Amino acid sequence: MLSLAVVAWVAATAAAASMYKCAGTGSIPTYQESPCPPGRELRNFDTHPADVSVIPLRPIPGTSTRVSVTPPAKTKRDTTLAKNKGKVRGGDPAERKHIGVGMSDGEVVARIGEPDMTTGGKGRKLARWTYMPIAGDAHTITTLLLDFGKVVEVERKIVR
Q1: Same domain membership, residue 36 and residue 85
Q2: Phi, psi of 27, deg, nearest 5
Q3: Where are the beta strands (DSSP E) in the chain?
Q4: Cβ 18 vs Cβ 45: under 8 Å
Q5: Alpha helices in 69-120 (DSSP H)
Q6: Quick check: is 98 in a domain?
Q7: Is residue 21 a part of any domain in this protein?
Q8: pLDDT tens digits, one per residue of 124-160
Q9: Domain that residue 134 falls in
Q10: Does the residue 50 lie in any domain?
């Protein structure tokens, strides 16, 4: 008698766990445990089960699934040559001669790095970027004029 009660309880629980996909308001699908209203059923998972199975997995101990990165604090850019002396600069100095009109500021930074000095650009449409001489381009000051983030003028001055 007890086993008959357990079977009836399991059958009732399984019936209560049915899933139905119905057309909701604006034909947006909704998922519910009760049968859909007439003409609104999109799928009955009891008679037409899903093609895929989803198995929830726990993360492997000692690993992380999400990494938080704290951006570096913003600092005011040094605009004097004395403050920039000895600074390690990124980019390839040999690429300075290949900077041309029409390049974006991002392309310039990717090729030759951040400028040593900048003027304008804040609230103004024109910005002037200056690259001082360094090893590989030891006798040239490269000055770029940017308009809304695009190079509009390139000037290279030889200094001795």
Answers
A1: no
A2: 60, 25
A3: 20-23, 29-32, 41-44, 117-120, 126-131, 140-147, 150-158
A4: yes
A5: 81-84, 105-112
A6: yes
A7: yes
A8: 678 999 998 888 888 889 999 998 889 999 999 988 7
A9: 81-158
A10: no
CB-CB contact of 131 with 112 (8 Å) = yes
Domain count, the chain: 2
90 and 139 together in one domain? yes
- CATH number for position 150: 3.30.1450.10
Give the contacts of 135 (CB within 8 A, at least 6 positions apart): 93
Residue whose structure tokens are 């000055």: 143
Instruction: Encode pLDDT of 8-52 as tens digits.
Output: 554 555 555 677 888 888 878 888 888 888 888 887 777 777 776
Nearest to 22 by CA among 6, 37, 4, 41: 41
Residue 115 buriedness (CB in 10 A; 0-12 / 13-18 / 19+): buried
Residue 158 pairs with which residues in a beta bridge? 140
